[in-house]
Design a protein that fits this description.
Layout lengths: L2 H6 L12 E9 L8 H8 L8 H19 L6 E7 L10 E4 L13 E9 L7 E3 L5 E4 L4 E4 L14 E7 L8 H16 L16 H6 L7
Antiparallel strand pairs: 1-2, 2-8, 3-7, 4-5, 4-8, 6-7
Helix pairs in contact: 2-4, 3-4
């Protein structure tokens, strides 16, 4: 563990290990927008001129998209998160760093990550959730963290996780790579052909299947 984490706390210094967040919540996720088109799916499954299963195929498309997003830690469509941060020792009056658990890369003129708000619970009784002025913080895309210039002195010492960050990861450009979509179509085919959670016999992954197609795009966490 870096020296600054031992001496100052998990939110101070430029390098922290392990990550400083305590709890993560997914606030919103796109449940409507089509990623794999119905035409792509029916061609993959050889269901030409058969519209009887369209609603089922659309539900499989959504499940497949979620699985790919979760496996790669990548937003195909924007996802909003709420992250909680704990112990406040040494945070007030000095620069603090808050790691983000899920990020996305910039796409042309669109930022990969948008910080919606940084809030903290004040030390009142009961504590009051207060939104921090956006001029007091910025997002560092090189380190996947928010740097706050100064945490107010009235931050609560009673709340378990007194700092809350809400942010959105925008769509990653990688989501449109043909190899990502082909992996998704392979996974969707598996879900279509196996509609039960049990199977008699041994199942083996095909060579160059979903894992192999996605492996190069799965982030390496150090």
């Amino acid at each position: 563990m870096p020296l600054d984490s031992l001496t100052n706390g998990p939110y101070l210094g430029t390098t922290r290990n392990p990550f400083s967040y305590e709890k993560i919540e997914q606030v919103s996720r796109d449940l409507q927008t089509e990623w794999l088109t119905l035409d792509e799916i029916t061609q993959q499954l050889n269901l030409f001129q058969d519209e009887s299963q369209d609603s089922y195929l659309q539900s499989l498309e959504l499940a497949t998209r979620f699985a790919i997003e979760d496996y790669l830690g990548m937003s195909i469509f924007p996802i909003t998160w709420k992250v909680y941060y704990g112990a406040t020792n040494g945070m007030t009056g000095t620069q603090s760093a808050f790691d983000l658990p899920e990020v996305s890369q910039a796409n042309q003129n669109t930022a990969g990550v948008v910080i919606n708000s940084v809030s903290y619970y004040s030390g009142g009784n009961p504590p009051v959730l207060t939104v921090l002025d956006p001029t007091l913080y910025f997002y560092d895309p090189t380190g996947n963290k928010i740097l706050v210039s100064s945490i107010p002195n009235d931050i609560s010492e009673w709340m378990t996780n007194p700092v809350i960050v809400t942010y959105t990861t925008n769509a990653s450009p990688i989501a449109q790579y043909p190899v990502i979509k082909q992996a998704a179509l392979l996974l969707l085919t598996h879900l279509y052909n196996n509609r039960s959670n049990s199977f008699q016999g041994a199942l083996n992954n095909i060579p160059f299947g979903v894992d192999q197609l996605l492996r190069a795009y799965k982030p390496l966490v150090m």
